[in-house]
Design goal:
The complex is a heterodimer.
Chain A lengths: L1 H26 L5 E6 L6 H8 L2 H8 L3 E6 L3 H9 L5 E5 H9 L5 E10 L3 E6 L11 E4 L4 H12 L8 E5 L4 H6 L5 E5 L2 H6 L4 E6 L8 E7 H6 L1 H19 L3 H10 L4 H9 L1 E3 L3 H9 L2 H15 L14 E3 L5 E2 L5 E5 L2 H7 L4
Parallel strand pairs in A: 1-2, 1-3, 4-14, 6-7, 6-8, 12-14
Antiparallel strand pairs in A: 3-10, 4-10, 4-11, 5-8, 5-9, 12-13
Helix pairs in contact in A: 2-10, 2-11, 3-10, 4-5, 5-14, 10-15, 11-12, 13-15
Chain B lengths: L10 H29 L9 H12 L10 H33 L1 H14 L8 H8 L3 H25 L3 H9 L4 H38 E2 L3 H8 L5 H29 L1 H7 L2
Helix pairs in contact in B: 2-10, 3-4, 3-6, 3-8, 3-9, 5-6, 6-8, 8-9, 8-10, 9-10, 10-11
Classes of the chains: A alpha/beta, B mainly alpha.
């Protein structure tokens, strides 16, 4: 029996070694097929329509590759899957790009800055009118998300600290129902939930992201190594995005209706969400935002917030642990550990019409 | 040569064979983790065992900077409290509803279809209603476990009472026992170990509901921590927590089993637990 045991053990080890080695060698191959994950959010719905209407395919064909936009139902899960290597790219906010893939050692590049939240995220109090009254309350929100960051910035603006309130981690899927419960007196969330709750009895919006414009940024993030090996992917996606933006700028009725439907609302609802989203319809605007001095400053704030909340990982000794690179050679933090890159390369090509 | 079905391992080999799947799992993990870490030293998906130990030591087992509490024990205590309350209430309700359902035909005719239908409602699907009725605090978390687990225990006990040997009931009746005496002296004492069995089988379900309720809204708990750190893919914290939940669930099952053996030796012998 004992010899049987050892031989079985040996066989198992051999199988494991063989499989790991095989999967390792598969990873190194050059690719022609790419997968990019997206989730439902007003600023990302264009990706869905671009795929449905064949714009993605058209641009992919132009560059001789294949691109599949994969819808993931859970936002954090989509980023986790990207970080684990399942996707070549994913849509996410600036803060999540720093704390999930970049802090996880996956070198990532923000290829397209799509928009920034200009009222899409907000703090709501029940039966109270001003933010200062939040003191001493339980605040329901998705902990460690942009909502948490918005709350920290809001508290700062009225001279309060996080110590003055108590954060209750609440799933974004259940936060609308949560507001109906008498125990919930204040919360922070994003759209479409925010507009639902705002319309409920006793709710008043006391702070929103339009007070910190340009700090909550929605972008397309691609794996840096993948686009170094295959710049075609970034070019094709950028081309498709700005063709799509052209449609949105002219308020193409068909496109708006399709995006509204896919995000589970109607045209009026979708348009009202667009109003609180500062979309960069023009590549030139996105470009100047990316090149501005405000971006590194914002990212510094986000990095400091993330470090204070322990989400840069255990290796982080201070907020500069994960390095970030910005256009024209500016950097923040460790230059040895640059894991998040903001590039203007592709948006510039789009602005110059060279794609 | 003995037939395969007659070859029995001795104690040592049985232990080795029992451990084998665990050892294989650990080896597979160590290899896969090593392969990923070689490609990217910061990889978070499959951290090494040393990394996990370090994270747990630093983040979960040292007093937190803000409150000075040790979050690991805090989480464990909060979760076990909710689980214990939920299971306790479910078992009591299960006994109180299951026995009359199985024993009294009039009650069965009146409530059995309703209970059967009610037990099919997935509690997670009616969360908004639960929030409004039970709020968002501790009550809601315990209520979710109770709503998820009680119907299973009720239906199990009902069937156990129904399949109770008729001879015993007839014998007691010829000796003059009333319906009440039958329930209290014959049925319930013999149902107790079966109730514990039902509780053991529903422990897994109870954990699922506990973790879900903590994922929805909480400030502490094992499920809360897992869903919180999942936000930045901290598998070095999630994996030890999952392991700990498994150990706790296994221990709860083991203790209930020993408890049944000790308290109801007649039952334990019959079913050779």
């Amino acid at each position: 029996m004992t010899s049987l045991f050892t031989s079985v053990l040996k066989l198992c080890v051999a199988t494991v070694v063989a499989t790991t080695m095989m999967s390792g060698s598969l990873m190194a191959q050059t690719k022609e097929k790419f997968q990019v994950a997206w989730t439902i959010y007003v600023g990302w719905m264009p990706w869905d329509y671009a795929q449905q209407s064949g714009i993605i395919d058209k641009w992919a064909k132009k560059y001789g590759i294949q691109i599949e936009m994969v819808q993931v139902n859970d936002y954090v899960e989509s980023i986790n899957q990207y970080t684990a290597g399942k996707f070549d790219g994913c849509v996410m906010t600036n803060m999540d790009a720093l704390t999930i893939p970049a802090a996880g050692g996956v070198d990532s590049t923000a290829v397209i800055i799509g928009d920034f939240s200009n009222g899409n995220d907000g703090i709501i109090l029940k039966n109270k009118k001003s933010l200062a009254e939040i003191k001493g309350q339980n605040v329901n929100l998705v902990e460690l998300s942009v909502s948490h960051y918005l709350l920290a910035r809001g508290l700062e603006s009225v001279g309060l600290k996080e110590k003055d309130i108590k954060v209750v981690n609440t799933s974004d899927a259940d936060i609308v129902a949560a507001f109906a419960s008498p125990e919930v007196t204040s919360l922070v969330t994003w759209n479409p939930q925010l507009s639902e709750i705002k319309a409920m009895k006793g709710a008043s919006l006391v702070f929103d992201s339009s007070k910190i414009p340009g700090e909550i940024i929605d972008m397309l993030v691609l794996n840096t190594q993948t686009i170094q090996e295959n710049p075609k992917l970034a070019k094709a996606l950028t081309g498709a995005w700005y063709e799509m933006m052209g449609l949105m700028k002219t308020k193409d009725a068909k496109a708006i209706a399709a995006m509204a439907k896919a995000s589970g609302t109607d045209v009026a609802g979708f348009n009202s969400q667009l109003k609180t989203t500062n979309m960069f319809y023009d590549a030139k605007d996105a470009l100047s935002f990316t090149q501005s001095d405000a971006l590194p400053k914002t990212m510094q704030k986000v990095s400091e917030f993330s470090y204070e909340h322990g989400i840069l990982g255990d290796g982080a000794k201070d907020a500069t642990f994960v390095g970030m690179a910005f256009p024209s050679g500016k950097t923040y933090g460790s230059t040895q550990n640059v894991k998040l890159r903001f590039t203007d390369e592709y948006m510039k090509l789009a602005a110059e019409g060279k794609l | 040569m003995k037939r395969l079905i007659n070859q029995k391992p001795n104690r040592g080999n049985a232990l080795l064979l029992g451990l084998l799947p665990f050892i294989i799992l650990v080896i597979v993990y160590v290899f896969a983790s090593h392969a990923r870490l070689q490609e990217n030293a910061e990889d978070k998906l499959l951290p090494s065992i040393a990394q996990m130990a370090q994270t747990m030591d630093k983040s979960a087992l040292s007093p937190s900077k803000r409150s000075g509490e040790i979050i690991f024990w805090n989480d464990t205590l909060a979760s076990l409290q909710r689980l214990g309350l939920g299971i306790g209430i479910s078992a009591t309700l299960g006994l109180m509803i299951g026995v009359p359902l199985g024993l009294i035909p009039l009650v069965r005719a009146g409530f059995s279809p309703f209970i059967a239908a009610f037990s099919m409602v997935p509690p997670i699907a009616i969360l908004p209603i639960l929030f409004i009725v039970f709020g968002m605090g501790e009550v809601a978390k315990v209520a979710l476990i109770v709503i998820g687990v009680t119907p299973i225990i009720v239906r199990d006990l009902q069937h156990r009472v129904e399949e109770f040997p008729k001879e015993q009931l007839i014998k007691a009746q010829t000796l003059g026992a009333s319906s009440w005496t039958l329930a209290v002296r014959i049925i319930i004492p013999q149902m107790m170990p079966r109730l514990l069995d039902a509780v053991r089988l529903t422990l897994g379900t109870a954990w699922i509901f506990l973790i879900s309720s903590e994922a929805i809204a909480a400030t502490e708990g094992l499920g809360y921590r897992i869903f919180l750190v999942r936000r930045y893919l901290a598998m070095d914290m999630i994996l030890p927590y999952v392991l700990w939940i498994t150990v706790l669930a296994f221990l709860a099952d083991f203790i209930l089993k020993k408890f049944t053996c000790k308290l109801f030796p007649w039952y334990a012998k019959k079913d050779s637990l």
